[in-house]
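Support case: user asked for a sample of complex input and structure output to validate their parser. Sending the pair below.
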Amino acid sequence: MNQARRLPGDWYDGLVPDNTSIHETAHLESAYSFYLYRSELDEGVRMGEGSSAYLGTMFDIGTHGSVRIGSFTLVNGAWFICDRGIEVGDYTFISWNVLLMDSYRVSHDPAVRREDLLRVPHRRPRTPQFSEAVRPLAIGSNVWIGFDVCVLPGVRIGDGSIIGARSVVADDVPPYCIAAGNPARVLRQLETPRK
Amino acid sequence: MSVGGTASGRWVDGALPPGVKVGEGSLIEGSLAFKRFYSTAPDALVIGEFCTFQRVQFAAGVDARIEIGHHCYLNSTVLMAELFIQIGNYVVIGWNTSIADTDFHPIDPMLRIEDAIACSPLGAQRPRPPVGKAAVHIGDDVYIGPSATILKGVRIGRGAFVEPGSVVTRDVPAGARVIGNPARIVDRPE
């Protein structure tokens, strides 16, 4: 665990929470990324060696959520909606306005949604606590995710793959391929690197 | 200052525009809520009870109306109304969703040139050419995921589930689940 701390030159008057583990060489642009952070785990966010999270990145993490970002991975303004686990490998690029969610935060059952909605006005602050089974996300290493992409709960993206801009990824993407579209489909295979 | 009288905290610097009616227990947060609210209709925006709006923009044109039921939760949504947007009860709309009941500009290229001039700094007195509009209706118990887009004339049936990132261009039957651009049905109710 780190000490809660202010980032040098941060425009936002807030702290990086102590229950995070940010590598000393990792770059975080603003503590505003933790505005919606509610994790109570020891390590709600982990950022590896040489990783970075730029402006617009939001760790919207529930009490039992944890986001783990690998080494040399660049997050250029993505929104993490996390109630359990989102894992991102090493050397991965994530572009602006990308949404990575391991939970819909709402039930698929309208009757359960009604019960949750009835409680919202009585909460302080009015952040909803919707009941929904979560399905963790696994983004591999050496992946490149284009801008405005949505990755839906439970999806696994294999190493080395590319997701085209504005795609909605609803199903798993195998390693070393290009996938795009809404919903995303595999468009072609990339050459697998020789070890 | 609060709207509907329950929650505390500053939500906007200024008075509520005329024609806005907010039910008991409903809360509107975010300083941009009425930044683009131009409607002068008597019931321009009518909101039911115990709704929560966080960073929602009510962008209503001069004659537009927006009607929202009870117990809704909307987050970072832009409602672009030139005619009528109706949202039922117990509706959840999330994160960066846009809903529009208008085409914004004419489809016909010649009319669009006319519109470009009327919209320019030199077009102050010119009337804008007619633009396609059709009311949007969203039924009770609907869920609309993050980054979705709902286009004009669409009717989303009761209890439907719109997956994140969907672009809804056609009606969605009650209880269906849709995904894609354009949105297609993936699950029908039994």
